[in-house]
Amino acid sequence: MDSQTLDSTKLYLTALKTLQSEAPPTPSLPPLPSSIPHSKLIPHTRFLVDAFRHAGPHSHSYFLSHFHSDHYSGLSPSWSRGVIFCSHTTAALLRRILHIPAAFIVPLPLRQPLRIDGAHVTLLDANHCPGAVQFLFSVPRATADAAALRYVHTGDFRFCNSMVSEPALAPFVGADAVFLDTTYCNPKFVFPSQEESIDYVASVVESVERECEHNSSDKVLFLVATYVIGKEKILLELARRFKRKIHVDARKMEVLRVLGYGENGEFTEDGKESNIHVVGWNLLGETWPYFRPNFVRMKEVMAERGGSYSKVVGFVPTGWTYEVKRNRFAVKSKDLFKIHLVPYSEHSNYDELREYVKFLKPKRVVPTVGLDVEKSDSKHADKMRKYFARLVDETANKQDFLRGFLRDPGEKGEAGFKAEKVVSDALGPGQDMEEEEINALKKTEGDMGIGPVVAVGLSSFMEETYAQDPTLLNDEEKEKIIQELTFCLPTWVTRNQLLDLISISGSNVIEAVSNFYERETEFHEQVISCQTPVSTSKCCSLNGMDSLAKPCLNTNNTGKNIDIFPSQDSKLTNLRHTVPSPISPAKRKRSTDSKQNKKAKVKAKSEPSGSKQATITRFFSKVIPEMPGGTQSDNSEPKLDQSSKVEDLLPTDDGQMYKDEIDQFMQIINGTESLKKYAITIIEKTKGDINKALDIYYGNSENLGEKQISVQVESKIDRPVVKKHASEELRIVPDIFDQKVLKDNVDATHLSLPPEKYNPKEHACWRDGQPAPYLHIARTFNLLEGEKGRIKATSLLCNMFRSLLALSPADVLPAVYLCTNKIAADHENKELNIGGSLVTAALEEACGTNRLKIREMFNKFGDLGDVAQECRQTQRLLAPPTPLLIKDVFSALQKISVQTGSRSTSRKKGIIVHLMRSCREKEMKFLVRTLVNICFF
Ligand SMILES: [Zn+2]
After folding, report:
1. Which of 175, 379, 579, 924 shows its CA 20 to 30 Å from the CA of 410?
2. How far is the CA of 73 from the centre of ligand 1 (A)?
3. Longest Cα pair distance anywhere in the chain, in angstroms?
4. Do 453 and 497 lie in a common domain?
5. Domain termination residue (choose one: 552, 586, 621)
6. Using CA of residue 566, residue 568, residue 569, residue 572, what is the dihedral sign?
7. Could you tell me if 443 and 515 lie in one domain?
8. Looking at the structure, do residues 294 and 418 belong to the same domain, yes or no?
9. What is the pLDDT of residue 582?
10. pLDDT band at 166 (very low <50, low <70, confident <90, very high)
11. From ligand 1's centre to the CA of 370, what distance in Å?
12. Pick from 493, 517, 552: which residue ends a domain?
């Protein structure tokens, strides 16, 4: 056999012969079971990475990244499922430590591409433990002219700069996927370089010994906790610096010998030769979920090790300890014992992971470590992907998408094995989807240069795409973008047009919106021309209303769900939680929490959300052309050209000094550009103190009525001057509205009028140009709660948003967040951090009730929102409260999310109490549901 070309099956059969067992299994392999986690399977191959627990007759090719038990688990001396490809070091450990039969182990050299079963495989050092490698796979496609698929599997790795200049890695820039070690993939994990940590350990040893020199009776024993393999760098450096052997036990010595360290004299099995001893991982204490020192065991060890030790200093080198952010090198001590927690990690930290992904710019990232990461659609996987949203190559995905239209429908890889379910799920919602897609294609034939015939290949393309790229835009994600677009674009835009926009903009919402406005007239003409005689043709049946309504609905064929935002399952709970349930609010919160995290990754942008939101908000203010469907659109709608006004208001040199603070402040208050000058004034006034600025903005002592803002600010600083639009001024100077916001005698049931009868302006409960009251949302929710019909529910929500668009476009975005139980875009990682108990406490104060009563009512209603509503209704009010505004509620949530430190709980409670005191009608119920449901991560 050519040394450059390997065949797993042949190798396997040869290995089996050495066992002298009966007839070897047939070379034809059964299909791969769907239970294999996709983080362990290289697409279009039968290569399984670190997946011995998923071994079976379906594969003969197993790859082992390194010798850590969580990666080799499933291996035993009786292993005979297939051949194991790994580095020479790992191979030696497998033979010597695990006693795996040598015939089944195929050691491969580093950096040298080999052909295995038709694919090219290269091993690269992973900077993890000795022998740890990353695998680079280049898998040819079925058709010879198509470029090979490239995958990088990092195993466990710690990124280092030299990887960027690694020649073997260069061809993998732009890879189809990176299977990434996401152990510490969270911004909260930032640990120092290994060198810094090693220096720290050495310096501690040095200073402790120096101290002992002064007191000659002291003899100190150093204990370093390690795994069976790993952290050798620390040990070697200690040996080098102190010219002293390191004591290890026999098992560790065996491993070190395999690694080639045994003979150089750095290590010894004789405890008397050294006062630096290596101990087992958990000896100094449990590390998970937080470190708990075991001083008793330490004392025992001191006695065991003989000598005349009077002190013990332990080191626990782990990444986990770094969770305790402020004590980067925490020390636990008791009597004569000290334990240093050293943030020494052989895994990449968050910044390093991002660095690597940025360098590789893959089409997607597949996380390999984390809770339920084995499911591609898991909450965790989704969150991980979000972290890399702007670093992956979305354009490549877009090109693939378009290329897919032209691909021969016959071409299908091995991919089919896993695809069936995913595809049927993906195409499931809305069987008419395919047809619509084809229509969309037909329409754009001209400018996209794609013939309608190729569209037939669409479904097979989808199938293939999903098979090889389960993380690619699936149907649900597409729906999410459609929703987002729907809220940014005029209502007459059809679903087909939305789909067009999504595909030509590479699924980037902002780009899609700008694309739209570049070709707005064209799109409008399309709709008009499509609207010929009778609406029989497919695309015409989607009138303006439908295009808004459709994406709002969960288009599941079952028709069970009436959910405006399909991703937000919790919304269902929020709106429909009428059946008493025995679970506590806290539990309920958790259960909805997990669902809540299935969010659109598309939204994640690296730029500050403030600017993004401003962009979208600006688009909201664009003219909404007359609806072609003849529905009651208002022709006399004023043209709110906000963009020009924004320019006028932009500061020139102002605010340069507190730029970051101002940006942060703007983000917190979710302010549009028009508020910037005002923000600058407050920030300058408070000399950059955001907390004080927020207090001024939200009114002192958490007064949400906002009256004090103007009172306080008026005399000393210039109010923002807005000449063009009175409405804008009103929004900035809140004291003018107050009770005038609400129109008298507007029947709440107007909202449930059919869309063609609903007049967004007349039927709204507030006046044109005024900020929208929260009552508008609460009334809609209340009606929704009693609505079982899907069409009715949709039109309710449509009416709600139409009024917002017509009267107060700036409130659309906060309303969308409130409807989806969010307080910010996903990537902002904002948390509300409140639970049922805090809400209960606020309820006690706001409604003058007590915990016992609340408990009782909760048992009766099973929903804290209903409980709150009941409390509110039985409360006597002297005067009608100040109307709650959508932006007030939203800002209050934002403010809650930034509270930290001592007394933050009471500040949060204060904010909630103020909100509660302003509740009217059914606002209380939905406010509380929002409070207990909003929670992130
Ligand atoms: Zn490892």
Report:
1. 175
2. 12
3. 103
4. yes
5. 552
6. negative
7. yes
8. no
9. 39
10. very high
11. 13
12. 552
In the numeric block, the tokens 């320019």 are attached to 647
The answer to whether residue 263 is domain-embedded is yes
- Structure token pair of residue 283: 């000896």
In a domain, 510, yes or no: yes
Structure tokens at 77: 């001396």
Query: How confident is the model at residue 649, as a pLDDT?
Result: 36
The confidence score (pLDDT) of residue 229 equals: 83
538 pLDDT more than 60: no
Q: Is 453 exposed, middle or buried (0-12, 13-18, 19+ CB in 10 A)?
A: exposed
Tell me the per-residue pLDDT of 195-204, one tens digit each, with 9 for 90 and over.
888 999 999 9
Answer yes or no: do 167 and 235 share one domain: no
Q: Does residue 749 lie within any of the structural domains?
A: no
Instruction: Tell me, in angstroms, the distance from the centre of ligand 1 to residue 74's CA.
Output: 15
Q: How confident is the model at residue 613 (pLDDT cuts 50, 70, 90)?
A: very low
The tally of domains found in the chain comes to 3
Give the CA-trace dihedral at 228, 205, 275, 289, to 10 degrees.
-40
- The predicted pLDDT at position 672 comes to 65
In terms of C-beta density within 10 A (0-12 exposed, 13-18 middle, 19 or more buried), how is residue 113 classed? middle
**So what's the pLDDT on residue 403?**
56
**547 lies in the same domain as 418:** yes
Domain range for 122 is 5-188+352-387
Tell me the CA–centroid distance for residue 281 and ligand 1, in Å.
14
**How many whole angstroms from 422 Cα to the centroid of ligand 1?**
31
Distance 40 CA to ligand 1 centre (A): 15
What is the predicted pLDDT for the residue at 736? 38
What is the C-alpha separation between 549 and 225, in angstroms, rounded?
60
> The CATH number of the domain where 23 resides is what?
3.60.15.10
Among 75-89, 664-678, 837-851, top mean pLDDT goes to 75-89
Confidence of residue 448 (pLDDT cuts 50, 70, 90): very low
pLDDT of residue 666: 72
Distance 391 CA to ligand 1 centre (A): 25
Within 10 Å of residue 194's Cβ, how many Cβ atoms?
Answer: 20
Mean pLDDT throughout 666-678?
69
> How confident is the model at residue 600, as a pLDDT?
37
Does pLDDT of 729 surpass 80? no
In the reported structure, the alpha carbon of residue 357 is separated from the centroid of ligand 1 by a whole-number distance in angstroms of 20
**Cβ pair 937, 878 in contact under 8 A:** no
Q: How far is the CA of 442 from the centre of ligand 1 (A)?
A: 52
Length of the chain: 937
Q: Is residue 621 part of a domain?
A: no
Distance 89 CA to ligand 1 centre (A): 14
Say yes or no: 357 and 400 in one domain. Answer: no
Q: How far is CA 615 from the centre of its chain?
A: 22
The H-assigned helical ranges of 26-127 are: 69-72, 88-96
- Compute the distance from residue 640 Cα to the ligand 1 centre, in Å: 58
Centre of ligand 1 from the C-alpha of residue 65, in Å: 9
Least confident among 21-25, 564-568, 915-919: 564-568
Are 428 and 475 a contacting pair, CB within 8 Å?
Answer: yes
The residue written with tokens 């929102």 in the block is 865
User: Do residue 264 and residue 326 come from a single domain?
Assistant: yes
- CA gap 140, 149 in Å, rounded: 6
Examine the domain organization and report whether 300 and 431 are in the same domain: no
Distance 896 CA to ligand 1 centre (A): 39
pLDDT for 488-528, tens place per residue? Answer: 677 778 888 888 777 776 676 766 776 776 677 677 777 76
CATH of the domain at 319: 3.40.50.12650
Percent of the chain at pLDDT exceeding 90? 21
DSSP 766: B
- Expressed in angstroms and rounded, the spacing between residue 211 Cα and the centre of ligand 1 is 37
Q: How far does residue 346's CA lie from ligand 1's centre (Å)?
A: 8
Q: 263 C-alpha to center of ligand 1: Å?
A: 25
